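Lab manual, section 2.4: Encoding a predicted structure.

Procedure: take the sequence of the chain (172 residues), apply the prediction step described in section 2.3, and record the output as structure tokens. A sample record is shown.
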Amino acid sequence: MAIEKPEYRVLTSSNGIEVRDYDEYWVAECHVKTEADLSMASSVAFRRLFNYISGDNSSNQKIEMTSPVQQTAAETGWLISFVVPKDVSLGSIPVPTNSSIAIRKVPAGKYAALVYSGAWSDDKLESKGRELLSAVEKLGLVTDGPLTSARYNPPFMPAFLRRNEVLVRLKP
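Recorded output:
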């Protein structure tokens, strides 16, 4: 069985990026305020989010793992999120028992995405983010929010086989 991902359509591919139209989806999002380093924040948040989908929620409901795990820099720390499966979001999404986790709707919209493989790091996010923003600017597009990193594979996957992305919402 394939792991569920947010649904999107590729509108164009140019300058090494894709412009995508995403459907609305929901995330369980963990705010990690105490870690400035993305790798450390991801580790802390992943445990909390994994506990949430393992039943540490108001309904003691187990929720299927989805992909990608998303990371966005916040004013303080990082926001790390798991996508809520469609069958759960159509019903009643269980309330997290951990106060650092919130449920949030991601509105439908257009995004620019840069796909790459390899290891995850703060430096990689920064360099790929600059590359994405440069391509967006060359295409005359305007961003509407912060960069988001998306990791599709588990950490035990060899780095050269990993699918990663850097995304940014675009103004309509």
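Check your result against the sample. Residues 8-169 form a domain with the Multidrug-efflux Transporter 1 Regulator Bmrr; Chain A fold (CATH 3.20.80.10).
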